[in-house]
Amino acid sequence: MAITPMAKAMIVCHRTQVSDLLEALQEAGICQILNAEEAMISKETPGLAASRERPKDLEELVARLERGTSFLQQYAAPRKGLASMLAPRPIVGRQSYEEVVSDGDILRIVDQAEQLQAAMEKTRTEIDHAQSILDLLGPWRALQTPVEELGRLQSSVCWPGLVPQQHFAEFQTRLEELGAAIQPVSTHGTREACIVVALRDHAEQVQKLLRSHEFEIVNFEGMTGTVAERAREYEQRLQDARKRLEEQKGVATTLAGNLLKLEILHDHYRNILGREQTRDSVPATEQTMILEGWCRKRDYPAIEKVVARFNAATVAKIEPAPGEEGPVEIENVQAVKPFEVVTRLYGMPHHLSVDPTPYLAPFFAIFFGMCIADAGYGLLMLGILAFFIKKMQGDKRLLVMLALCAVATVVVGALTGGWFGDAIQKFILRRDANLAIAFDPFKAPLVFFGVALGLGYIQLVSGLIIGFAHNLRMRNYIAAAFDQLNWIVLLNSIVLFALGVTGMIPAAVGKMFGYLALVAAATIFLFSHREGGVGARLGMGFYNVFSSIFYLGDVLSYLRLMALGMVGAGLAMAINVIAQVAGGIPWVGPIVAVLIFVGGHVFNLILAILSAFVHTLRLQYVEFFPKFLTSGGREFAPLAKDYRHIYIEKAGK
pTM value? Predict the structure, then answer.
């Protein structure tokens, strides 16, 4: 498959029916509608403009529902088990959905949740305040003097506070030198609670001393009576507030029984908000609204059917403006579709480029399998992934792609004799047996070396061929000849010339391809850069010819396939040796051996999967894509219903 052909449509609708029309288009999910700034009709007709009337009431309702659901989720009964992680959103039948969204009384739950949340925040504030006061009073419980008396001295000034213990002796001596008195109250951690009293005439000097010794003044302002009395009062307040908070949590837990209804309402009104925001952003006249947008060509008849249901609306297919770039959607056959994950991670191709997915799919699976190269690991991956695919909600393309890569891993592992390393030989056959394999990477590493380089070379040349075919299809014959065909000829001629030199093919044939390589190099030198003056063209041409050495670096990058495969196999064999040695321990040997075998191979498998995915991804992005792909496409994003908290059960299920 390729990039999906897109069509541009313009729908003109009377204001009275536009909301219902947008709902129908949103239900269909097949049309991406442009706002007034993007629509070409706005640029061609300056008098058109969007109404820009924000649906503030609806925005506020969605925000309230969002806050309400977030609040009650903390008190809802948690879904237990692995299933809750894989399928966190409840499935709601269409009838149940309609009953909830049509029940106006449910919005009262939002009011109750908001009031309860405000009350709980107030209670928590009271708890924090009471606790902070108790922390303040803690060091002063032994003080018998009413705190209000500390500020009533006539000729003296009193400073209650805390001073670090390491400074206390020096601090006391310095105070006595200034004629001030100090009364220790208690020790609190690393600080000493004390009261400093000095004559008002010496107050300024004493204050400087307090600051120099890190004296932290404690303020009892607003308090009366002894510290012990105030502490008992705030302990009671703290106890009452905590009890009240627990009661409020109980009410919240009861209210959380309606969480699903709020989640349904949130998703419902969020979808309404989406289409209302779309309505208020499109170009409009006094009586009509103009919906200009993109759809897949095959979906245009469906749009016509939707619009035909409205007597005050009409639709027409229009040609894109010169230079206008439409959104990009890629579609592939079922076997290739999971690998769209790789393309979408990279970014959508330009709308005039080519979809790389069908070309990268076989390479990605094979390279992934070579990086792990163990049939036992592949089978284990398949079993785990099959469980996750069956249980998980949402987009499963990544899991399916990894499952296909696991199949390739089984094939490569079987061909190279990898079954949890050499577990078959060590624990089943119990001898150094030769399995029916294509080659052993440790006995014939050069074979693995050659396979990795050969596949890398094939992928790089395939990229050039894809670019060549695409340029021919786009009738860009000059680019096809000088940007791809020349390189295809040059690279293959160099390879065949090298084979002739080594005697693997007749020397005369190799010599002929050597001359052909010189012709291709000369053509690249003269015509690969076709802009600017003669000097610039020849300079860039020389650079491009020199760049042929970069292809050698690109091919060598594929040796990481061999390296990862052999490292993983080596670690698996080491785990087997350790497990075998541990098995000889008296009494507990078999148990220890099993633990080492299972734990070690699980750890090795996790490392292998991460390494295989990252490095295989890198080979596609860095080595393969630049040979033919032009990126920068804008992904097709049709107006469609989106459910964040729930799944709507499909008809017939």
Answer: 0.82
Pairing of strands 647-648, 91-92: parallel
**Residue 261 to residue 448: CA distance in whole angstroms:** 59
Please indicate, yes or no, whether residues 598 and 469 belong to a single structural domain of this protein: yes
Q: Do 211 and 358 have their domain in common?
A: no
Please name every residue paired with 316 in a beta bridge, in sequence order, or none if there are none. Answer: 10
Is 468 domain-assigned? yes
DSSP, residue by residue, 337-381 = GGGHHHHHHH-PBPTTS---HHHHHHHHHHHHHHHH--HHHHHHH
What tokens does 367 get? 């390279």
pLDDT tens digit sequence for 428-485: 765 555 566 788 888 888 999 999 999 999 999 999 999 999 999 989 888 888 888 8
Kindly give, in sequence order, each residue whose CB lies less than 8 Å from that of residue 16, ignoring residues fewer than 6 positions away.
312
Are the C-beta atoms of 651 and 94 separated by less than 8 Å?
yes
Q: What's phi and psi for 156, nearest 5 deg? A: -125, 165
β-bridge partners, 12: 290, 314
Specify the range with the lowest mean pLDDT, choosing from 257-261, 520-524, 574-578, 589-593. 520-524
Final residue before a domain boundary, out of 174, 204, 225: 225
Residue 622 belongs to some domain of the structure? yes
pLDDT tens digits, one per residue of 172-200 = 888 888 888 988 998 888 889 999 999 88
Residue partners of 335: CB distance under 8 A and separation at least 6: 361, 404
Domain co-membership, 564 together with 417 = yes
**What is d(CA 643, CA 652) in angstroms, rounded to the nearest whole number?**
20
Q: What is the pLDDT of residue 167?
A: 79
The greatest distance separating any two alpha carbons of the chain, rounded to the nearest whole angstrom, comes to 118
456 and 589: one domain? yes
CA pair distance 649, 514, nearest whole angstrom: 65
Q: Write out the residue range of the structural domain in which residue 195 sits.
A: 145-225
Query: Domains in the chain: how many in total?
Result: 2
Q: In this structure, what CATH number is given to the domain that contains residue 208?
A: 3.30.70.2750
Phi/psi at 339 (nearest 5 deg)?
Answer: -80, 0
Q: Write down the H helix ranges in 138-226.
A: 168-177, 203-212
Task: Please check whether residue 491 lies inside any domain of the structure.
Answer: no
Query: Residue 604, class by beta-carbon neighbours within 10 Å (0-12 exposed, 13-18 middle, 19+ buried)?
Result: buried
**CA dist., res. 301 & res. 306, Å (int):** 9
C-alpha to C-alpha distance for 610 and 603, rounded to whole angstroms: 11
| E strand map for 378-461 | none
* Structure token pair of residue 561: 């396939």
Beta-carbon contacts of 85 under 8 Å, excluding residues fewer than 6 positions away, are none
Do 345 and 467 fall within a single domain? yes
Is residue 169 one of the residues assigned to a domain? yes
**Pairing assessment for the beta strands 288-296 and 6-14 based on DSSP bridges:** antiparallel
Q: Is 3 left (phi over 0), alpha (psi -120 to 50) or beta?
A: beta
Domain limit, last residue, from 225, 257, 280: 225
Distances 216 to 136, 180, 496, 640 between C-alpha atoms, Å = 12, 17, 86, 62
Taking the C-alpha atoms of residue 517 and residue 515, their distance in angstroms, rounded to an integer, is 5
